[in-house]
UniProtKB/TrEMBL annotation:
The keyword Disulfide bond does not apply. Signal peptide: none annotated. Pfam families: MMPL. PANTHER family: MEMBRANE PROTEIN MJ1562-RELATED, MEMBRANE PROTEIN YDFJ. This is MMPL family transporter.
Amino acid sequence: MSRSGLRRRATWFSAATVLLTLLCAWLLFGRGRSPIQTDLLAMLPATERNPLAEVAAQRLARANGDRIILLVANADDDRAKNAARELGKTLAKNDVFASVTAELPPFDLQQLTAPYLAHRFNLLTDADRQALAQPGYNPAQALAQRVNEPFVTGVGTRLQDDPFGWLQHWLDQQPWSRSALLPEDNLLTSHRDDGSYVLVTATLNGSSYDDTIQQRALLALDHAQAQIEHDQPGTRLLRTGALFYAAAARADAERDVHRVGLISTLGIALLLLGVFRSPGPLLLAFLSTAIGVIAATVVSILAFGQIYLLTLVFGAALLGEAVDYSIQYLSARANAGDAWEPRRGLRQVRPALLLALGTSLLGYALLGLVPFPALRQMACFAMTGMAVACLSVFALLPALLQRRARPLSSLPVRAAQALQQFIAGISSGKRGMTLAVVALLCAIPGWHQLSHDDDVHLLISPPTELARQEASIRDITGLGNGTQFYLVEGDDDEQVLQREEALEQRLQKMVDAHQLQSWLGLAGMVPSLHRQQADQALLAPLFAQPDRMRQWLVQAGFREADADAFIHAWPGTPLDLHTWLKSPLATPFRYLWMSDASGHGAASLVLPQGDASGQALQAAAAGLPGVTLVDKAAGVSNLFGRYRRYASVWLLAAVLLIVPVFGWRYGWRDVPRVLAPPVLGIAFTLATLGYVHQPLTLFHWMALMLVLGVGANYAVFLREGEPHAAHRPGASYASVLLSAITALLSFGLLAWSSMPALRDFGLTLLLGIGFTALLVPTSSARRVTSS
């Protein structure tokens, strides 16, 4: 291609880059919402074979996703309540909150019992059911016991409406009656030895994962907290909700991006300046990499509609690998000296760059096969970025690098030459074989100590303070975490409720055995029609003779008018599920019912509350038709474990795919020599992880895929570059070491990421790239001599 042709190609590529940059800026900042996804659920793969179970898991996770829970604490009861009122009023003034609840509207607790009075004869507890079924049941004794019961301060029925206490006993088992929070002065309050805790809840006017909503809500909360702490000394504020976890995850990711990006950029800049002794190569290397990262960002957002936190941090680390292509072209120019000619230089590096790109794309393609949205996006990001960065070298750099360059700095070249001679010397002949055997023998104990950990919670570690506050709120309020639930399915509403009742019988046994704290389910609030009819049948003999019932009531001290009203209320009406779901009382629990839009079948959710083991919860559902325990975290962990076990097969498959390519390029006899550095680098990395007792995760194995690709690149760069740098021994290996160090400065920094998954990724790459870079001289086809 002529010089004008190079310029024309560079012009077209530059124009496309400008358009791509404008599109990237619009996608990131011009649509009114950030594409950065901080919802951890969105990054996780589907794990349930039953699609309805997957929908239920997402529904449950998002049921309170836009709600925040606050507990105002103070040793002084009045100050705690005043602070809660002030907090509620302050937050309610900000339109970032759709609703804020601190003070409850004045109401009579009897309002909670009124909707159930018409159904009182259909609602019995297990204890009353068992008592009524006994042959010796004494109604007069039951009445006397009810009349002499202590006064009920909570949700209670009037004595004349419920003389036997059957409805009262049933209401005592409802979720609102079991809550540790009780209404005091129109505030939901809990008392502990260290003071009073008052509940304040707020619903966001938008998504917890929206960057703008996050910033506005957190700013409003911080200002309000500072105000109540000033006005009511000694006040503390406990907080939990998806908002705080999403904001913390975003802050950690941004901190990682800045740290990794800044340190790697400065390190790579100093290296390039020191080796090439000119700012020009530095700017061109970063230009090529920046174009690749911009293209990767655009493609990822267009393909996935968003960009995940893992991808965001991973993208900052991609600098160290994408810059390799421009480094090799710049090194070829520096080594050519006065004989430099851009087109000839391009032909010189093209085979190495294309071969290296192919091996890298293979590694990332295997990463993309895992059915994990975050990993697939990382693979898409990397493949696009690497391909475009390589393309920019072909399209842009030849037109911009017409003049010759100064040779590589002599110090790194001499150091690389000495290191290459030393490694090549000790790895050749019988001494090399002996050293290899000793190294492998030393690695065996490390391999033997390898273990694994597939816990999905290692994906991202929540801030300790947030986790502590959530645990305190859960302990004080008695709320469960909802990470596990039962999905109860049936052909219709009645069948679902009956199956849920069978499950709850088993859960109650776990509660009685102190294996479970409680559970939350609709059948406990709206029994099945079959159970309501059975309860009414138990009471029927008592109402068979109205005069006898009237006599019992009057003798117990009830007025005749109240006795007649109670008798005339019999038999009442059954409590209907859908009527109840429309009532205000059902508002907090509607998400537990899942209607089928097609009209076929129905389903509900039952939430166990407490710290029961997964095995015990699974045993409770065993043998019950239509009942499935859904544990999203365990499901994802099992999936991670399954693919981790497959990863070694994928790694072997990747090696086998590379073999014919290297055999075609270098000859079959040299394939073991060229593949030895990355393969041995992987082996020694695994041994080191074993020695430091680092449990293997899926992310370790995915990183080893990249070690294979990157390590093969280094072997290719050395083999392809040495014939063109024969006049300056060590120069080709110096460029390989330069590529390796830039990768270590970027990928290696992930080992200090705040995200455990990326720490695993970074540590593995740090070890793997380091071992491989040191072993690359063993792949050289010629022996290095002193110049």
